[in-house]
Amino acid sequence: MLIALAEDQLIDALYAARSRHYVCPACRQPVHLRHGTRVQPHFAHRAKQRCTVVSEGETRQHIQGKRQLSLFFQPWGPVTLERIIPEIAQRADCWIQRPEKAPVAIEFQCSPITTAQVLARTRGYRRQATYPFWILGQRYCQYGVSWSLIERFATRLRGWGLSLLFWDVRRHQLRIDHHICQDALGNYHWRTTWVRRLTQLEAGNQMPLPKVSLDYSRWRSRLARDLRVKNAGVLAVQERLYAAGHHILDVPACLTTKAATLPIFGQGLLLWRALVISQLFAGPVTWISRQMVERAGRQSFETVGGHRHAVWFTGDQAVITAQRELLLELTAQGYLRVVHDGWQIQRRPTWGIIRK
């Protein structure tokens, strides 16, 4: 904690004197000033005391990062360190009062936190008409981009697309993993950019994004390995396909696509497509209704381990778009014909090894 009360005045730990009596601005319990050659100046609650306001444990990184972030975001407006919002029992690491715009709360997250906690804090801030910026510390930098991080912290930023933000205390820089997406084979893609100034963040990405290439041979090898080791997710897909008389390694070539999606399709858009058509073209059926498409799309999404909801976005529209594009492609290739109440089956996709 960087800010405490002394005689009803807020005092920054940088300028605090040891001889004074300090209390927590939130719970009004006594706090100690900690200040030494190896310790960044900060206040701490006494042992076994629990504050009524949610806050993070004070590590050296967290203390340094909050001060650095307060300087980084200063061009947006006056910055208050550790602003307490009593209505939601929350202490924002940095509070930025932007002129004629909604305030911004910076959450510099260095310690473990659950999705439920992030969701609760985010909703609390939004109820206060405040935009929360979740910026991650060193413990999160060591991990690659995964659904665990995306679900809790990824947000859409103008000029950057779906992004994760990290602050490097040693470099005094913001790292942006941006334009996060997923290819048809289930791989995540993103670009990493470092920025030193807030103007660079506001300007958005200035570099061309790399084209995504798909390695079907490597994808098949990975699936074959997962089948051998009995990977639960891959076995779930195989069981569904096997029930329809197909094999996971023999996905029809007509389903291949270079489309990039939100990173929500679990094991990938291609396996989702394979599961959908295995249901739509099953047995002697010659006609497909919209209800059949919706049911197949929903069940297949669950089977590939899809994720419909994250803290900052939902995947509902992405699934609807994927269904529409699949049907358009199958119609254009002559497998389906549009009729007034659905689609008429013209011919059936051939299952076999994709050779690309």
Automatic annotation (TrEMBL):
Protein source organism: Levilactobacillus tujiorum
Database matches in InterPro entries: CoiA-like_N, CoiA_nuc
Protein's name according to its UniProt entry: Competence protein
Transmembrane spans: none
Competence protein CoiA-like N-terminal domain: residues covered: 16-53
Domain annotation Competence protein CoiA nuclease-like: ranges: 58-181
